[in-house]
Amino acid sequence: GRESYLRAIVSQPEPGVYEAVTTGDQGSHIMTSLVQANALLIVPEGVTAVPAGTRLAAMMIDSDS
Fold first, then answer.
1. Distance CA 18, CA 25 (A)
2. Which of 51, 65, 64 lies closest to 22, judged by CA?
3. How many CB atoms lie within 10 A of CB 59?
4. Largest CA-CA distance found in the chain, in angstroms, rounded
5. Among 14, 18, 31, 49, which one is most buried in terms of CB atoms within 10 A?
6. Which residues of 33-53 are buried (b: 16+ CB within 10 A; e: fewer)?
7. Is residue 26 part of a domain?
């Protein structure tokens, strides 16, 4: 496998705490999930499932975030 990315909306409900929710279907043809996203979650190489609560690095893609 290779490193992959999940489109997501990252929020900060309280100082020092960040939460992410994926934007739904991640297919390359789904533009709405890209438009909604303010971040890309970085899924390490070899990881095939990301259970809720998993810590991932995020690359912010929205200047307001």
1. 22
2. 51
3. 10
4. 35
5. 18
6. beeebbbbbebeeeeeeeeee
7. yes
Amino acid at 56: L
Q: What is d(CA 26, CA 33) in angstroms, rounded to the nearest whole number?
A: 7
**Residue 22 CB neighbour total at 10 angstroms:** 15
Provide the number of structural domains found in the chain: 1
Tens digits of residue pLDDT in 31-50: 888 889 999 999 999 999 99
Note whether residue 16 is domain-resident: yes
Domain span at residue 13?
Answer: 4-60
Structure token pair of residue 42: 């970085």
Structure tokens at 22: 């994926």
In a domain, 65, yes or no: no
